[in-house]
Amino acid sequence: MGSATEYNRRDVFKRAAAATVLAAGSSSLLAACAAGGGGSSDNKGTAPSGSGSATNPFGVKSSDPLDVVIFKGGYGDDYARAFEDMYKKNYSGASVSHLGTQDISPKLQPRFNAGNPPDVVDDSGAQAMRLDVLEKAGQLTDLTVLLDAPYLDNPSQKIRDVLLPGTIDQGTIDGKMYSLNYVYTVYGLWYSNKLFKDKGWTPPKTWDDFLTLCATIKASGIAPFCHQGKYPYYANYLIMDLVAKQAGPDLVKRIDALDPTAFDDPAVLAGVSAFFQIMQKDYLLPGTNGMTHTESQTAWCQGKAAFIPCGSWLENEMIKVTPADFDMAFLPVPSLAGDKMPQNAVRAGAGEPFIVPAKAKNQVGGLEFLRIMLTKEGSGKFAAAANSLTVLKDGIGPDVVLKPGTKSSAQAVSAAGSNTFNYTYADLQTAFETEMENATTDLVNSRITPQQWVARCKAATSKKV
């Protein structure tokens, strides 16, 4: 089972499978659009004016059916059924059809081509439809009308006022927001609090303390570190977080812009060199370089390794194999000497894009569905069902019982305050990201040095999507 956010940001989220889908399918999508089957570039993202009533700003008709398609990955789809029940309470005459699937593009591309898309789609997973392709084909609703709609819990506020920083930017293409990235994902290291308490180990705050603890962990007969070797972007989370915290947010922007001189910054070599010490000191779980994400994460849940890098979907993704007393915990990436960002800084941002197709039969219903998602009730239902945070500010009420890992990551976000950062290259620069992954695969297998890794990534900045 793949993670929802894993595949929308790491695949991030749109790996080889997504690239294959794009290569095979985008031409037919564009051709269909050109033929008038689903919008045109001259009429992109037509949306309602938002001139309905205060309580029904989009003018939803209670009798109109709603068609919902959800990526059924690491978050499951139970949360979406809860949203659908909320929708039906407000619009009692509506029938709601629901499809939970991992085959987003295979199932939906024919519908988009025929001009008969669903009303709202969680466009995620390894086979997600490419948002940039959909936008260029005029297939996405401009969500500005949603941003300007009243917030259901407090109509004196607009939706845009209650979203966490970066949410609008993450869903913006060519200056307009076309996707609501609903899940607020936190990235870092993870460990078992029970294991650490049993062993008397203290979670490290500095990289030197991390390496010292790794030596102690190895001496106890446990591998200090494992990673999802077949998917090297997980290791890149750690590498690039070390880089970001060492250099500060300006370098993050330069890397996202594929500025080749960004890789001349000493922080890049410092970050990858720190990471490489894990290999030099033989702290890897044997075999982890060839494991899938679920294989390595299962080994970690079994206590075969102490640390693993991942996003906050981890807890829900591994819920069926995690021991009841495991007490999963999140750790911000430990600090290097001279870091420009504080130790509690974390990579965090919006993921899991929800879209309303421009040619949806019940376009206004799709927009209202998103508005219902952005309530404390909706956010709480998602947190309880999917064990993850949403992009709604203060979206988790005291009545919501969080699992240990989700609670831990929520506390980390709160502690970080404004000291959060995020990269966009994984979403927007696929060719560069692929080259970086290839370099990291060679690095974790000790086939290249940190200096060679930096040189290869710098060269990869010339590879534009």
UniProtKB/TrEMBL annotation:
Task: Report the locations given in the UniProt record.
Answer: Cell envelope
Q: In terms of one coarse class, where is the protein primarily found? A: other
List, alphabetically, the GO terms of the cellular component aspect: cell envelope
How far does the signal peptide extend, from start to end residue?
A: 1-31
Keyword vocabulary terms for this entry: Signal, Transport
Task: Fetch the InterPro entries from UniProt.
Answer: Bact_solute-bd_prot1 (IPR050490), Chitin_NgcE (IPR022386), SBP (IPR006059), TAT_signal (IPR006311)
Which Pfam family is one of this chain's hits?
A: SBP_bac_1
Query: What Gene3D superfamilies would the database entry show?
Result: Periplasmic binding protein-like II (3.40.190.10)
Q: Which domain of life is it from?
A: Bacteria
Q: Which family does it belong to?
A: Belongs to the bacterial solute-binding protein 1 family.
Q: What is this protein called?
A: Carbohydrate ABC transporter, N-acetylglucosamine/diacetylchitobiose-binding protein
Encoding gene per record: ngcE
